[in-house]
Every structure is written in structure tokens, then in C-alpha cells.
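hiii so my PI (J.) wants the whole complex modelled not just the main chain, which honestly fair. so below is everything: two entries, each one labled with what it is. i double checked the lines twice but i was tired so who knows lol
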Amino acid sequence: MSSHEYLKSICLLGSDRQPLDTSKLGETLQAYISPLKELESSEIILHALALDHYYRLAGRPIAKTTQIHESVPIQEKIENAPENAYKILEKILEVEKQKIQLPLLAQWVKKIVEMKRIVHPMYLVKYFNLLTSSPKKVRTLASPTFGEKGKWLIQQNQKYTNLIPIEQEDVYSFGTSEQRTLFLTNLLQLNPEKAILLLQSNWDTESSKEKLKHLKTLLQHIHNDFLPFLNDLYSNEFSYSANETATQRQSRATIAKALLLIPNSELHQQTLKKLKPYVVEEKGGLLSKVFQTQSEIVQIPEHNDSFFNPMVMLEIYGLNPKSTAMSEYRTDQLYWFGQLCAMIPFEAWSKLTGRKEKNILTSFLKSDQYAITVQGKRESCLKKSLLLLADYYQNDTYILHFLAQEKDKTTAQNLIAKLSVKAWEMYLSNNFDLADNAVLKECPHQEKETWSTAFSKQLIDYIYNQMKNATHWSDYMMGITMAHYLSSKSLDHLLWVNSTKAQKAGMIYNWKNHIFDPIYSTMAIRLEIEQLY
Amino acid sequence: ELTEEEQLKKSNAKAKRKEDRLQLTQAGVGELKLWLKDLIRIGLLELPNRNAAYFDTVIERMVDSKANGLAGWVRALKNLNFKAQNTWQNQALEIISKLFLLIRAAENLDHYSISEKLAIKSMLGWTFTQKELASDKNTISLKDHWLVMGSTIDIQDDLTIFRYWLQGLQSGQDALILEFENKFSNQANTTPILEGSVIEAELGFYPGLIPHRAFIKKQKEVHQSLNQLPPQSESWAVYQDKNLEALKQDPWTNNRAGFIKKVKILSSNQSLIAMDTNQNYKEISEELDEDKKSTLLLFSNNQYVSMAFVDRQQSILPLGLLQDQNYSVL
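here's the output for the full assembly
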């Protein structure tokens, strides 16, 4: 036993139980403590212990590894983003409100992707920590900025699992169902022809559930080029069969919806022909023609006939004859008509009936034959379908007609969000009283798009006036939304309003805290990102 | 103005206060020595069974004796992680060894030079204000370009202690600046110390056997980049030699910051090591958080790098890395 081990055992057990035997210590220690004989044993031990500690400290060898470490440095093929990019990233990291921080990060990521650069290893951890909280879209977009070291880091650390980058060409073959849908959605927006080719080439290997999922994705991005593919599926793989599964029926229903939305499809044209007999002839009176006051435009039968019957609806349109949704309609026929309304563009109704779109919509929303009572309110049973059409049809005129008749605030907000960028700004410019945060944050602008300068300035003025006149202001998130979407060219106007109006009016609390400060600090960073090269 | 008689009276009163204080502390030293001896007689294996009051009574006695430095050592014993069987026993022996050496130094205070006496008194718990040190001609001062290699934050109840590690680019002298913050402190007038920056300044050092704890006496400019490379140890062996020299002069020295020129960061048995070109290595402290460990691995990228660190004796705590003329804080 070494001197140290011996001293340690005495100290642990106590010198009362294990008295010190100096002969068990090394010579040097013995020589040091021999003149201390007069002292108490415990004090001698303390002397020896202190000396032993420093001897060991002074003589402690440096640890040596015998393993041969032949690890190869990770080589990057792409250049790091420039130094000033990280100064901006640091500023983004310091932003306290995540609702401001994440959109800024998204903008920064897009810039680095555009620059075809990667993030320096010194900043990767901070970058990843923030990126993991970002929406999936941003995480997917960010993968080219990781570099080889970033990919290595993701493999090493479980907390970065949601950043696992999958090379684009591999996503469709090996990705999860969610990743494949996201990939297909992006491709349908960027290159619909390529998307269809990819779908066709892999179609036979897909499960029926996956096929249905892909068809639903197609329906969201309908395009004339899809017609041959959809026609083929409709006439062959998903044509009606007596022993078909629910998934097959749903697939046919989805394809039928898509075909109804394409005016030159056979199904669309055949459906209009079938609907023609139900159109109510226009009355001949001059006043009636000029003002188009007649409310019944389409008369739906009360009982099954050669078109509105369960078999036709199932075989042709894939509609479930026992759908629970039917209970919401007065008759089954109205339910089927409602389903068709959700898919037939309004231009087609106009051609079919010879009436103006606005009047057709009024008829569908107000006519007595469609009226039902929902939570004590009179409503058209077609309303749900007509709102759904707004999603698929994406026609500003249709939505604006709808908005003109809509009184429910939430429904109106949803409809406003479906307008095109230009129509959205124009509509709100004329209806600023609707421009609360709930509406503004759902603007149709793409992530990198900002509001036009003119709209931005108008909004700044409107909000300033609102705040000035309001006794109470509770739309605290407004500044955050504005910070994200205001045009950077409106910054001067904001500063002008702040210095010449707000400060003079003594608007300190609400204006400064909820509007000016979040906008100003965010826009400063946004401008820096824009100017990054 | 005071008359000669009054001045003499005042000076005598001051000398008496100093003498009283010393006697009070010496009494505390004696009490602590007895407590340590008892501890050795009873055995350290009893320590995990002791309640907080066992330690607190001694800590309070030391505070009453104006020996806060000694109270700190007892507090370190109290705060040992007794659940970590492999480490607490060695840590306890180390604390007791150093503490006993300090007690012996206090008992033999008369044998030391004035500067050594001040250093020992400082360790016992004498406090020195920056103001009095700045005006004291005996205070060691050094002008240099000081690289702020990094910092750590230690939160103890309501008190936050910021430790900044600096190294003189010309002198190679390391320095530790402490800043304390609690809910009552006013930080508005304090100049912030930015990690990774180079401060052109004169540092004053607190009494110590070798200069270590410092304060900024005069500050000129703050630079964001290095104008010269800091002195670095070529290998762990060279660093160890230098460290031993420091230990000879100051047996209580710890938490010294250093710079090593060429180390590779490698994973070994679920921990990280910093290996030099001779395959000698030091373990990276577990204190380094996971994010910083990842950054360290990524930045070093299986290649030799220059690294600044704090020596925790059993391991090292990396502070930052040097690449070309650029210093990056972890």
C-alpha cells in the first residue's frame, strides 16, 4: 500500500480506530514528521496528508493515450457564409419574441440558401438550436446551409433529429409520408409537369392510402396538365366496381372533384349537361332582366330522379350514399347538389344559367329552397360548399361577391385570406376597419413577400389614428405582424409618423411598445439581411 | 486638521483595531485546527452522515472570527457531492490538505515578508477594496493588451459571480476579474467586459503569492481583433512545468487560465480529451455544456487547434479557440 493509500485509509476510518504507524509511510514523509513526535497523532496525520498531497500534485504524470487517432477532418465543398451574416444571426438570436425571431430566421436562411453558402461551424449549434423551433418548411429549406459538419452534428445529437436533411432526389423514394407530401406540394407549385411525371412513374408502387393522399395533394394545386393522368385514373383504376373499398371510392371522389374544376374535362362538361334541365328559365319581364331579382335559378328535385340518385352519385362522383353529412341537408338531392357546387367554378354556372355570377351566388345563399336553421340562424345549406369552392377556385371576383354578402366576421376573415395579394391589399385599403391582427397575419403574401409600399404607409397611418383615438388598445400582436410584412420602403414614413406625430402627441406606451419598437428593430435586421451579399 | 497628538491617537487606534482583528482571526484559526483534528480522529467516513448544522456552526464561527476565507473552505467540504463515492473522498482529502497548510501559514504569519503576509491574510478573509489597492504603491500593476479569453457564471442563492479570464498578449500573465451581482447592485456604471475582445489596459492585482485576481486600473481602448498572438504552451509537458513553478510559489493556486498551442479534441470513453502532439492529454471538464462540446468538436474538426482553457486540476475547461489571428469564444 502506498503512503497515500495508507493515509487515506486512516483519514477515512479515523485515527481513533486506525492509529498511525509511521513505519508504513515513505522515507521522505517519515523524515518530515519525525521532528513532530510531540504533537497529537491527528495533527501529525494532517501534516503528512498536506505534504503527501503536494508531493503527488508535483509528481503527477500527464495522462497519455495509447490509442491511435486517425480521424479524418470533415471537408466542406461549399464556402462558409461571410462574417457579417453571423453578426445578423447574433442579432436574430437576441430577439426576445419568438414570433418576430422565427420569421427573421426564415429570411436569413433563405438569403444564405440564395447565396449558396453554408453556416460556419462556430455558429452551427446556436443556429440549430433556433432552427429546431422553426416551422418544418424553414427547416427543410435550411438543409443546404448545414454543410458536412452540420450533417455530422445532427447525427451526433438527438435534439436535432427534426433537422435531418434528406437530399431532394431521395425524399420521394425514402422519405416519410409527410416528407413526400411536402416534397410533392413544392414540386406541384414549381414544376407541375415534373410532378405529374414523378407521380406517374411511381404510381404502381404506391399503396392505396398513399395514392389517395397524393390525389388530395393534386386537388389543392389543380392544373390543366393533370387532365390526361386524371382521366386515365378515373376511367380505369378508379372506375366504379361493386366490391370497391372505401379508399378506392374516396379516390374516385377526389379525382371527380379535380375533373369538375377543370372546365375542358369530359366530366365537367357532362355534369353541366346533366344540370341544365334543373335551371329555371329566366322570366321575360324587362325589370326582372335588368335587376335580375329572380331568386330561384336552379330547382333541385325533392326525390330521386335519373341524375340525382344514389347510384349515379356513387358511380360518377364517388359520393358515399350513406354519408353522415347528409343529415345536415333537408333532402339527399340537396346534399348531392351541394357537393357539386363545391367543385364547379362560377364561370360555368354563369354560362349554364345565363345569369351574372353575383346573382347566382345570391340565389345559392339566399333562396328559400336551400334555407336551413343552424344554431338559431337561417343559413343556406350550400354555404359550406360555396366556401370550399373559394379554396379550390381561388377567384377574386367570386370571393369579393361572397364578402359583399357575408356578415359573419370569422367567415369574412377566412375569405379575405383567400384573395390574391393585389386584391387583398385593395380590399383592405377600402375596408381598414377589418384590418385587425387576425386578418393581417393571414395575408396571402408568400414568406419573403412584403406588403406594397403604398399599402404599408396607409396601414401605418390607419393604426396611428386608431391608437390616437382609442381609449383602450388590445391588439398587442399587430406590431409583430406589421414588423414582418411592412415594406422596408415604408420605414421612412414610420419614422416620420413617430417623430412628427406620435412623440408630439405623447403616445408613449401603446404606440412605442406595441407598434414602433417591434417594427423598427425588426425592419433594421430585415434590411441588413436584404443587403447581405 | 488633526493635531499631532490626535494623529498619534488615531494611528494607535487603527493599529489596535488591526491587532484585535488579527487576534480574533487567529482564535478562529485555532478553533478550526481543533475541528480538523477531531475530523481526522473520528474519520471522514462520518462526513456524509453529518447534517448541515455540523458544518454551519463552524462556518458561522469563522465568519464571526472575520475569517471568511476559512469559512469558504469549510463550505466546500459541506457542499461535496457525497453521493459520488469515487470522487468525494479524494476531494475531501485535497480540501483538508490545503486548508491545513493555510492554517499552518496563519500560525506562522510572523515568519513571512510583508507581501506574503498580505497574501495569506487575503486567503484568510481580509478584504481589499479596488480603491485602496489602486492607491497603494505596493499593488502590483501591469500594462498590456489583455485578451478576454472567456467567462463563467456562478449563481449562489441571490448572488451571481461573473469570472472573466484574461491573458496579457505581451506578458503572457493570466488574470481573473470577478464581478458580483445581486438584486441590489447597480450595474449601470460598470464597463462591460466583452468576451473575445482585447482590452488595452493597466490591471492592478489583489494581494497574492503570485498575481492572479485583478481589477482594471486604467483602460484605454477595446479592440475586436488580436494584434499579436498570445504566448502559448507548446505541449502539456511544457504547460505542466510552468504550472509546477507556479505551485511552488503559491500552493493554493487554482483556476489558472492557460493557452496550449496544438491539441486535437477527441471523444474517449464518452468524454472529450484534448490531446497534444505527444499524445499526452487532459480531460475536458464535464462542466462544459453539451452545446459547447459540440462547437468545440466541430470547430477543431479532428485537426490541431490552439485552445484557451481554465485548469481545473483534474480536467480543463475550454474557453475559446484560436485560428490564424482570430480568437473565437466557445
